């Protein structure tokens, strides 16, 4: 749990409890999947395809929970607020790591989760231009480098 004072339209400086278990869940399995699909090959390390498959299954389960529980009904953000919270920002940053994957691989993971895709776009819109600035390095410098290195190791 994370406690932080925030100002919102419900109360002024009231401590807000933010449940971050969904963030931990996504983080734990995204790291294993990314390590065994693109990061290890890019670093010249041996990847573990079995581990990647297992992490993908668990990641899919975590994304299902994120979509069906944390983004249930017509919630715009994880905790039902009209603006992103720390939980939203933390979780979306974990998911942005998947931008290093090629489009086909990324679509395979995220295509079943329309609510998650819309939620990511809402966070980007709500935090622009800062979101783009923070992710500039990942999207424009790391992604091509990792894809190129992973492609060389696959050949």
TrEMBL record:
Superkingdom classification of source: Eukaryota
Lineage: Eukaryota, Viridiplantae, Streptophyta, Embryophyta, Tracheophyta
Pfam families per record: GST_C_3 (PF14497)
Domain GST C-terminal per the UniProt entry, residue ranges: 1-146
Protein name: GST C-terminal domain-containing protein
Coiled coil: none
